[in-house]
Amino acid sequence: MISLSTLRADAEVLARQLPGLALQAAAADVIHPGAAGRKRAGSGEQFWQYRRYAQTDAADRIDWRRSARGDEYFVRETELETARTVLFWTDPHAGFDWSSDPGRETKADRARTIMLALGILLAKDGERIGHLSGSRPASIGKSAADKLAEDLLTTHTERIDPPRAQALSVIASDFYDGAEAWRTRLAPLARTCRHGVLLAVSDPVEHEFPFSGRTKFSRPGTSLDRLFGRAETVRDTYLEKLAAHEAALQDLAESLGWALIRHRTDQTGLRGAAALQVALEQFGAKA
Amino acid sequence: MTLGPFLFMAPLTLLGLIALPIIWFILRATPPSPKPAQLPSLRLLEDVDPKEETPARTPWWILLLRLGAAALAILGLAAPIYAPGTQQSDTPDGPVLVIIDDGWTSAQRWGEIRSAALSALDGEARDTPAHLLLTAPRSLNTDPNERLSRAGFEARIRSLQPQAWAVDRTDALARLNESGLRPGRILWLTDGLDPDSAAPFARALLDKAPLSIFAARARGPLALTRLSADARGVTLVAERAETTGASDHFLSALTLDGAALATTELSFEAGQSAASATFALPPAALSQIARFQVTGSATAGTVWLWDSADRTRRIGLVSGDSTAQPLLSDIHYVRKALEPFATISEGELADLIDENPDAIILTDIGPQARAAIGTWIERGGALIRFAGPRMAGPQINGTADDLVPAPLRRSSRAIGGTLTWEEPQPLGDFPETSPFAGLTPPQDIRVRQQVLARPGPELARRTWARLADGSPLVTADRRGQGTLILFHVTAGPDWSDLPYAGVFVDMLRRSIAAGRGEAVSDEEGLYSPSLTLNGAGRLTQPSAGATPLRASDFGAVTPSEDHPPGLYQGPAGTRALNVAAEYSAAAMTDWPASARLLGDAEARTVR
Predict the structure, then answer these.
(1) Chain B positions in Cβ-Cβ contact with residue A213 (cut-off 8 Å)
(2) Residue B22, min C-alpha distance to chain A (Å)
(3) What DSSP designation does A231 have?
(4) What is the per-residue pLDDT across B518-572, written as a single tens digit (0 to 9) for each?
(5) How far apart are CA B482 and CA B376, in angstroms?
(6) Which residues pair with B189 in a beta bridge?
(7) Which one, of B398, B393, B362, lies nearest residue B377 by Cα?
(8) Residues of chain A whose pLDDT is less than 50?
(9) Cβ separation of A177 and B43 shorter than 8 Å?
(10) Which of A26, A184, B251, B332 is most solvent-facing, going by the fewest CB within 10 Å?
(11) CA atoms in the 13 A half-sphere facing the CB of B351
(12) pTM over 0.80
């Protein structure tokens, strides 16, 4: 597994490459993915209104610049903003934390890097981020990315506990257990989270099936194995099955109202991170 | 069975080649073991049935490799021998005789010789016995007939040390012939020196058995061969065996307890086998030096023990004369006589006593400082006095001069004057017991005047030299550890011709040496070893086998176990026996052609 410092460094590199500033500029008021304006006065960054000073207000709340223009005292109020919550989850299955080439990142590490890069961006925008089924609740602020990085590496649980409140969920896995199995697993979560992203990370070997000859296949993390006398003969069958699996996965995402992002570890991490960012922006716009 | 250049010792094994087609068939029939592969998406293939289970073919190159390995194994088991008959068997039957030159010339590369000896039995059968012959003679020589097992041989070799004396190959060969040993193979580990004895020895060994020669010739300085001392310093001559290339080394001058007093450079020029080095040291430091050593070399040959006989003496001169006319001074003749051999200091008597020279020479002076000089003689000084008008004159205050070996008559004796009957006297023969014994008295000198000793019972014993008529010319007596010597004539030519004679110089030198209890010549004395050199060039207590030497034997005796090199203590001080004295290194290059050469000898043939 990737080390905490490497994960953090990789994710920082990704986050720096992502157009975080452009996102903020474009989505300044309309699709602001972070602080969502609640259309009333409260604690927040954006100016909401000036109102007359009341006896119950503390003296230091008076906006002296505004009050100096007239005879009355004014108090400056800002718009109430509440942060959105984005929760991440990584599949702890041994087959997910696997790479066909020792020189290449494992699928799980790639997923973690991408998710942490997004986490860093979101935390910068003031969002609440956290790990699903983690030991800590989702948090805000500068330390949120640090906590997320630790949680991504230390939380290994098969459970997917639905959060108490509305949140965006990012579920990273290879989903090779089958679309139906995942539908039952995700059902409780989908009830709480209207929106979410399925991040399907796969290894290039799983797409190319470059085997031939007498080959004994095994699935990492399980005792399952199959022996094929001539592996090249099952290649076509395999590719068909893979396409069907991907289609089923797409159906699953659509039926849940979620987005599906496919990513291969031979692609750059930036590509996956950008796709995830776009998906999150869309949901941010909807909210 | 031969096939081409090969001889097969087990030809029936070749029938195994018939099995190769069978192996080929079996290899084709059995599928290769499946390649393991990991695939997380294997679940997708859960319900797929493989259409074809026919195993894949073994790749042809694997098949070829396996068949080739099997064929080579069969050929190897058939014990092939390439070009039979052209090779000479390296292991003839019979025991191995190891001959080691363990003289002092081997000490420098003793480690290599020992390692080579330890590997002498390598490649031999496990029970091959070894026999050992050492060429440095000892009183109890190793018996070449003694059978040594492998373990016993090794223990024996590890305990061997080089001896401090030279090898005697003729003697070793005689011992070998006497033993009647029939070796199967001979390994001679030699110092590679002295071709005069090495060449016949090697030929004689070759007549007995196949011979391997391992030569380890000493590198750098091999021996210190000569020492010459004069008043300016000490010069040593070193020899080396290899004459190619220039090399620089260092010589140290050490005291008896091993403290280095001085170091000087010893440089061999390319092509030269000898080099000399000079220590320019003050006489007081020279007198402390007991040995010279090539720095960093631990052999008996690179140590030069310095005995007292060679040492430069320190002399104090006191003259009663004014020095207005130096050529007329008595002391002039003494100074000229001693200058080449001794370091001379002049001055007041009290200052000279403080300097503590080997000897003090007083010409005719009055009775001064007698107490101080008496104590100095008691502690081992040699006081040499010359007579003169003052000594012959009337005693002052009536006190007798007690710094004389024998009581003197009141007046001097003048011979050959107008008022005397007698002719001036020549020198008589020196008495046998005198330190002057061995010197030839010149016949052409005359003594015209002398002081006379009173006759007494001790006089004859105390007389070192006398005139032809028997009257004493030089008398001496021991006082404590020192000696008091009186020449009954003046130091100048006033009373006699003696200062003109060459024998005067020798007489003075021997008189000076008589202090400290050392006489230059003591032919009869026995010198017993007090410290001996071992093969590693260290001074040790003499072994029980070391026997005393007669003084006359020094210079003639060859160092051996009976007379190991070292310091010998005798009546006239210490004498040194140096193993490398007058040694001349000659490297052996003419090795017999049929011998197998190892080490330096091999290097020689390659060149």
Answers:
(1) 32, 35, 56
(2) 24
(3) G
(4) 544 445 667 888 888 888 888 888 888 888 888 777 777 888 888 888 888 876 5
(5) 8
(6) B100, B214
(7) B362
(8) 21-34, 286-287
(9) yes
(10) A184
(11) 7
(12) no
